[in-house]
Amino acid sequence: MSRAKKTPSLLDALIPVVFLVLMLALSVYLYGDNSSYGANQIALILAAGLAALVGIKNGHGWKSIEAGIVKGISTALGAILILLAVGSLIGTWILAGTVPTMIYFGLQILHPSVFFAAACLICVLVSVSIGSSWTTAGTIGVALIGIAQGMGLSLEMTAGAIISGAYFGDKMSPLSDTTNLAPAVAGSELFAHIRHMVWTTAPTITIALLLFLVIGLVQSPPEAAINLDATLTILDANFAITLWALMPLVIVLTMAARGLPAFPTIMTGALVGGVFAALLQPEAIARFVATGGAGSVHDNHWINTVNAVWQALFNGFSIDTGNSAVNDLLSRGGMSSMLNTVWLILCALTFGAVLEHAGLLQRLVEAALQLVNGTGSLVVTVLCTCIGINIVAADQYIAIVLPGRMYKAEFKRRGLDPLNLSRTLEDSATITSPLIPWNTCGAYMAGTLGVATLAYLPFCFFNLLNPLVAALYGIYNVKIIPLAADAALDSGGTEVVRAEV
What we know:
Layout: H1 10-31, H2 39-57, H3 62-74, H4 77-95, H5 98-109, H6 115-130, H7 133-151, H8 155-172, H9 177-186, H10 190-218, H11 228-238, H12 247-257, H13 262-280, H14 282-290, H15 301-315, H16 324-330, H17 339-357, H18 360-369, H19 375-392, H20 396-413, H21 418-432, H22 440-449, H23 453-456, H24 461-475, E1 488-489, E2 495-497
Antiparallel strand pairs: 1-2
Helix pairs in contact: 1-2, 1-18, 2-17, 3-17, 4-13, 4-15, 4-22, 5-7, 5-11, 6-7, 6-8, 6-10, 7-8, 7-22, 8-10, 8-21, 9-20, 9-21, 10-21, 10-24, 12-13, 13-15, 14-15, 17-22, 18-19, 18-20, 19-20, 19-21, 19-24, 20-21, 21-24
């Protein structure tokens, strides 16, 4: 006979969360930027074990908790496959000359003084077009990191600019999954939701672009700029620099813009990169094989080509140009390079799944709701809840769905249009997910761009400012729509009138 399940107390819910915070703080203190290479994973697993003990105390059997963990992890398998595919894409795109070609032309076109603002704007345009921050970072973002490295610019600042621009599109594009998920959970209409987000998003991205521009203009000239000609010469000597090498990028962006799923799109891009490597880079392949980067050397050219592409897919590309900076720039990629990130994601999702299955996450949200006494505090509470769930559950989808379900009735009870809720979910859950090292998005961005999450965090101006702007709008009742003043729509679906406070 199974035990009756007890409703967890607030203390029950806080114990594993406080334990995790202390463990992660100790991890960062002891290991710094390397904390995500094992130490944080152990902290998350230990915290998950403590949460499981709390759940067992309240009547949840281990089999039930284990099933919850499996269910929680399964929700991220798609993200893990995308992550592994991006590792392969980076490897074959370097071998194919796609990334070297983008770096080659970018070093000549993008001036250091406007680079950060330009990087952010480029990612804004790409992410709005394709609706995916992950694809933007895994394609254009990788090249921009390479260009910054060649110019001697801050990689942390560059990653911040890339992520700021990428998450603008993730938040605003109708092709984005989170942009569709938030209104679906809150009960609002997609395009009305996007129009309503403009009020908080437009001023935030404008401020972010201005900050990137000012920083670029006032910074001292980078030391590595004097090596620009040498870097261009090395790239030209080791790869066939041609616009044809950009075809894998064009194919991936076209597939993404047509709304094709991310994993097959990126994996196709990786395989197409291998084909273009065979067609365009026979000399680079020969050097890659000869230096031992692709295993043993064979007499048959096509066997060596297959060997090189295969190696790039699973273990990345490596090169020895005689220049350590260029070697670091181009020696990366492969599925294997993402395995530590996958490890981090699995441990984080285990912790989040136990919290959710044992009812601890819901108990924390219910406690937060007791602090609400007005519209401003309601908006701020939703923002904090979404950020908190991004931290403890490690997944932006949970951070959108759970608060959306929990606060939907409260917004209605207070006479507030669901558009206010859907906008607030995006202003917090979507935007802050890449700022947490063990969140699926934070782990992805760090693994893809090669910059630690806590290192680029201070420079993600858009992601940091957007929740603050949203909080100010809520506190001062700016662009908060009453439920009774819903927009009238004409036959073409165009907004005619909407009374706003």
